[in-house]
Amino acid sequence: NDEREQTLNQLLVEMDGFESNESIILIAATNRPDVLDPALLRPGRFDRQVVVPNPDIVGREKILKVHVRNVPLAPNVDLKVIARGTPGFSGADLMNLVNESALMAARRNKRLVTMAEFEDAKDKIMMGAERRSSAMTQAEKELTAYHEAGHAILALNVPTADPLHKATIIPRGRALGMVMQLPEGDRYSMSYKYMISRLAIMMGGRVAEEFKFGKENITSGASSDIEQATKLARAMVTRWGFSDKLGHVAYGDNQEEVFLGHSVARTQNISEETAQIIDAEVRRLIDDAYSTAKAILTK
């Protein structure tokens, strides 16, 4: 709109007003570089880009050391272990982890923050807060237990999977239960075998429900699993070239019209025939994962 363009033009005018010998460096930050106006990125403007990724295990340990300076720690607290167990955490996430751990220790009337507080705080951040007051019936608890057991058994038996960290049927966030896996180190890419294993794990809960309670008694508890599996399978087919029928081609089936990003417009840049093949390949991957889960749980 006009107001946004006026703001941009004024910023560019101000930047053009700097003399070359004034020793002024202008720095800006964004987490959405894809929606920036190209005029901002031309030479003489914001022409140097520094990508700041989430910290690796060494960086996480150093960030934790900064945030625990004023926190009384118990002797059993090992920041290396905490750093290894928090892959993908940003600096802000780690600060939140330390603060949450200190709050938990205070609520428990402890003078020192122990590893137990760090573990509980990590679970709260990654899985959501516990809802022990949630009034689940015994039948719902049993069904949730079998559902999560299905995920856990698959995680322990598929060819490639991250180690099992925790399984619970205590409601957390919006979930009635959860199985949590943690990678042994930072993961920068995923293999085909790993993704196929992930799909099978996601299907494990629904298969366990079906085996124990019958197909007519399966529940909507697998909705999140199905949604995640569909997203992963679609990415495998359209972005990462894991389909023989579609080949090593990226299909941007929903491409955004920028400037404002996702909220402006979406265009379809593939044919109807290709869209049908994509849907069929996604269905095939998920059906194969379901069959794998059935075979493993049958054993």
Structure, described:
With 299 residues, this protein is mainly alpha-helical. It has three domains: 2-41, no CATH class; 57-127, Orthogonal Bundle (Helicase, Ruva Protein, domain 3); 138-298, Peptidase M41 (Methane Monooxygenase Hydroxylase, Chain G, domain 1, Up-down Bundle). The chain has helices at residues 2-16, 57-67, 79-84, 91-107, 115-127, 138-157, 192-213, 223-238, 272-298; strands at residues 164-168, 178-181, 255-256, 266-267. The chain is globular, with a radius of gyration of 24 Å. 24% of the residues are buried.
Question: Which tags fit this structure?
Answer:
3 domains; mainly alpha; globular; 4 strands; 4% strand; 299 residues; Helicase, Ruva Protein, domain 3; Methane Monooxygenase Hydroxylase, Chain G, domain 1; two-stranded antiparallel ribbon
Give the full name of the CATH homologous superfamily of the largest domain: Peptidase M41
Q: Tell me the major beta sheet.
A: 2 strands, antiparallel
Arithmetic mean pLDDT = 85
CATH class of the largest domain, named: Mainly Alpha
Order of helix and strand elements from N to C terminus: HHHHHHEEHHEEH
What is the structure about, briefly put?
By secondary structure, the chain is mainly alpha-helical.
Per-chain topology:
Elements: H1 2-16, H2 57-67, H3 79-84, H4 91-107, H5 115-127, H6 138-157, E1 164-168, E2 178-181, H7 192-213, H8 223-238, E3 255-256, E4 266-267, H9 272-298
Antiparallel strand pairs: 1-2, 3-4
Helix pairs in contact: 2-4, 4-5, 6-7, 7-8, 7-9, 8-9
